[in-house]
Amino acid sequence: MTLRHFEPGDEAALAELWFESWVSVGLESPVVTKAELAVRVPQELAQRWDVTVAEVDGKLVGFLALVFAEGRLDQLFVAPGAQGSGVGAALFEVAKARMPGGFRLSTQPSNMRARAFYERRGMVIERLQIDSAGDRLIYAYTGPIPPK
User: What's the predicted TM-score (pTM) here?
Assistant: First the structure.
């Protein structure tokens, strides 16, 4: 596996991976389409995302989108066929290295797989956010816990 910074030309593959990964979670809401993600990717890249991608044999198998101005891990998705292979863990380590002071992220309360992934890596639930876009759990990572 190779981790590298996003490059122009990755947009379509990133949107496809994002959609396939989202579908694999099995959640019903919010419903997104490939077309919506294909439009959103270039907008996010232009406005705020710093993206690291994971590749195996030249194919994107995961991506991490950070928003430094907000101290946020905005997206971390792994292709269904690569889930459980260490891609997500490697991308999470990139987030920790790039934001050593800590960061936040949100996920749906019913996304138990993502929640378990984040909690195994030391993230803690900060709060439940309820609004018109749907319920979101806000997680925080404040850095490594110092030894006693």
Answer: 0.84
